[in-house]
């Protein structure tokens, strides 16, 4: 009972809708999957959809709640993904249970990406607005270039690192985990849709619980008015750092899950385009609106596949859908309709 | 003004230079517990600059500020608030996308002693402290007649209500000294009348000192117990309202010769 209350407590309308949406979607998809009525093309996208949702929820924390435009979320996915791939290879023989190993990989991916996020936030959060966005973009590119030149091997002696040139002499039975531009190779695929689903629930829980706490109020206060936030005793820099680190840690977890879904992933997968793609999901879902992010991410990741029957007109239709979504989500009349709806619900909740 | 009362604010020889320009110079100010003090002067006299120095938004070039005996020399704005200074702004600075209730609860940030993990894991402590702070915030909103707006977005409030909400948010930080920067700006005579009652009520209810900047002389002369007049960053006169009103220097500064 207490758990139910803590998940669906009062003053958390949007929150309950998000959770209900995710759980219902999971049940429906699981049933369809066991009945075998989901085409392969879609079912192979289920885990990536989960990854993009988690990354987008994290980014929404930074862009929507904290109000800092971040163009480097793919960089954190990359950090999380590569750390997870290394962890996976190292623990392959020690931890034989795939599920447990996947969880360890995701946790390590999130922690390392969170740490990198914290390091990057130190210079980045000294800036504001456009400048901050440009610097996050640059850091995203730097991370991609670093990963593109990274060599990691593993043998009986432990882990070996190399940079730019592969001069590694691996011992008997050793193997390369990360080989430069080829990226991660020979990764054991252990991601499952269920883990993706759990990860979405956890990230929603973390983000919502932060939003509806004193830290969340402080983050939003710093977004709305820095000077006023300072004069009522809120430390602006540490508050903004918190949002940035949570965002990058969720990006790292998403990257870890993504990496574990493929046997090989190149570093260039997590490039600027991926960052922008995630930002598009966030913006179209609505800044600070997690339910919207869930829907927009699912639709926009699946849409290109769904539109395959249109062959060469595919991307044209995709673009038109994007434009229509932008117009609809920015329409004043539609907005006021939803506002009214919200207000009525709020009054009812009070009575 | 008996000297035995506890001094909340003690300013000595305060001054600040911006490059070659001396914005405020040689300011002495004593405010006692429970006093309503007025800071007036023509436009550009340096009144808001004084507020910015008291809240440590600006670092003074000279002089000392003591709040309840504590030296403010090396503090930043966040620490200044923790020592007990809270303020409102001339141009309203609310958290306009947050609810009215959350605006006030944000003011209790440092009072709410629970950590990040308590809030992520939703431990019982979270519910207990949040409930307490919501109650306290609602009480505060009630005093300002804002309780029926608690769930509204702060930016959608009418102008007068926004000004009151800003005062409520400042009071939520539990200050010793409240700085009001032109609280009556943009208000009609009736609203100003209500505001005067409210300021007195705040002083009595919270037992704090209030320093206010205002151009509305009816308000200043009506509620301030003592007044300092600034002109070009210098103290022109200091004293009781009736002394200020009859001071020829002050009249000259305002109206011209």
Topology summary:
The complex is a heterodimer of chains A (351) and B (257).
Chain A: H1 2-7, H2 13-35, H3 40-43, H4 46-65, H5 73-90, H6 98-124, H7 129-148, E1 150-155, E2 158-163, E3 175-179, H8 193-211, H9 214-224, H10 226-231, H11 236-259, H12 272-285, H13 290-306, H14 314-330, H15 332-350
Antiparallel strand pairs in A: 1-2, 1-3
Chain B: E1 7-18, E2 21-32, E3 36-40, H1 47-54, E4 62-67, E5 70-71, H2 77-83, E6 85-87, H3 100-107, H4 116-121, H5 124-143, H6 159-172, E7 177-181, H7 189-206, E8 209-213, H8 217-223, E9 226-231, E10 234-239, H9 241-245, H10 248-255
Parallel strand pairs in B: 3-8, 3-9, 6-7, 7-8
Antiparallel strand pairs in B: 1-2, 1-4, 4-5, 9-10
Helix pairs in contact in B: 3-6
What this model shows, in words?
The complex is a heterodimer of chains A (351) and B (257). Chain A has 15 helices and 3 strands. With 351 residues, chain A is mainly alpha-helical. The longest helix of chain A is centred in the first third of the chain and has 27 residues. Chain A is globular. Chain A starts with a helix and ends with a helix. The C terminus of chain A is likely disordered. In chain B, 39% of the residues lie in helices and 24% in strands. Chain B is globular and about 65 Å long. In chain B, the strands form 2 sheets. A 6-stranded mixed β-sheet of chain B has the order 6-7-8-3-9-10, sandwiched between helices. Chain B is built from 10 helices and 10 strands. By secondary structure, chain B is an alpha/beta fold. At the A-B interface, helix 8, helix 9 and helix 10 of A face helix 2, helix 3, helix 4 and helix 6 of B.
């Amino acid at each position: 009972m207490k758990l139910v209350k803590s998940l669906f407590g009062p003053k958390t309308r949007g929150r309950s809708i998000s959770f209900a949406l995710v759980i219902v979607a999971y049940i429906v998809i699981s049933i369809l999957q066991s009945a075998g009525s989901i085409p392969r093309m879609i079912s192979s996208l289920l885990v990536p959809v989960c990854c993009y949702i988690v990354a987008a929820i994290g980014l929404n924390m930074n862009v929507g709640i904290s109000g800092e435009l971040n163009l480097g979320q793919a960089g954190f996915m990359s950090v999380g993904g590569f750390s997870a791939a290394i962890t996976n290879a190292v623990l392959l023989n020690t931890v034989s249970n795939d599920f447990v190993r996947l969880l360890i990989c995701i946790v390590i991916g999130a922690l390392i990406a969170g740490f990198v996020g914290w390091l990057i936030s130190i210079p980045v959060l000294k800036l504001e607005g456009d400048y901050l966005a440009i610097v996050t973009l640059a850091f995203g590119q730097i991370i991609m270039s670093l990963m593109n030149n990274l060599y990691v091997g593993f043998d009986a002696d432990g882990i070996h690192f190399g940079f730019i040139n592969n001069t590694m002499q691996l011992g008997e039975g050793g193997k390369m985990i990360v080989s430069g531009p080829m990226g991660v190779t020979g990764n054991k695929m252990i991601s499952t849709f269920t883990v993706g689903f759990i990860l979405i629930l956890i990230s929603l829980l973390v983000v919502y619980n932060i939003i509806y706490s004193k830290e969340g109020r402080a983050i939003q206060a710093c977004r709305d008015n820095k000077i006023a936030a300072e004069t009522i005793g809120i430390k602006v820099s540490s508050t903004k750092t918190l949002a940035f680190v949570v965002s990058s840690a969720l990006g790292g977890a998403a990257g870890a899950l993504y990496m574990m879904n493929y046997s090989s992933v190149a570093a260039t997968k997590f490039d600027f385009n991926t960052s922008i793609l995630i930002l598009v999901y966030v913006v179209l879902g609505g800044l600070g609106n997690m339910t919207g992010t869930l829907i927009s991410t699912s639709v926009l990741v699946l849409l290109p596949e769904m539109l395959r029957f249109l062959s060469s007109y595919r991307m044209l239709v995709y673009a038109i859908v994007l434009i229509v979504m932008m117009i609809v989500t920015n329409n004043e009349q539609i907005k006021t309709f939803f506002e009214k709806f919200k207000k009525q619900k709020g009054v009812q909740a009070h009575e | 003004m008996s000297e035995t009362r506890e001094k909340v604010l003690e300013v000595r020889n305060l001054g600040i230079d911006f490059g070659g320009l001396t914005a405020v110079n040689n300011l002495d100010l004593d405010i006692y517990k429970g006093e309503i003090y007025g800071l007036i002067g023509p436009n550009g006299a340096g009144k808001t600059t004084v507020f910015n120095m008291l809240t440590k938004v600006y670092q003074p070039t000279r002089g000392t500020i003591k709040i309840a005996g504590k030296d403010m020399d090396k503090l930043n704005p966040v620490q200044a608030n923790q020592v007990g200074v809270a303020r409102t702004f001339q141009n309203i600075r609310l958290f306009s996308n947050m609810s009215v209730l959350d605006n006030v609860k944000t003011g209790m940030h440092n009072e709410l002693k629970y950590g990040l993990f308590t809030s992520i894991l939703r431990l019982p402590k979270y519910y207990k402290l949040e409930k307490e702070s919501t109650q306290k915030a609602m009480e505060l909103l009630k005093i300002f007649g804002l309780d029926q707006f608690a769930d509204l977005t702060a930016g959608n409030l009418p102008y007068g209500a926004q000004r009151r909400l800003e005062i409520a948010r400042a009071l939520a930080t539990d200050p010793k000294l409240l700085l009001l920067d032109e609280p009556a700006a943009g208000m009609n005579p009736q609203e100003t009348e209500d505001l005067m009652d409210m300021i007195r009520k705040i002083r009595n209810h919270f037992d704090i000192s209030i320093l206010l900047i205002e151009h509305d002389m009816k308000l200043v002369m009506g509620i301030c117990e003592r007044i300092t007049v600034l002109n070009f960053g210098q103290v022109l006169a200091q004293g009781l309202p009736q002394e200020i009103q009859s001071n020829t220097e002050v009249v000259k500064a305002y109206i011209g010769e």
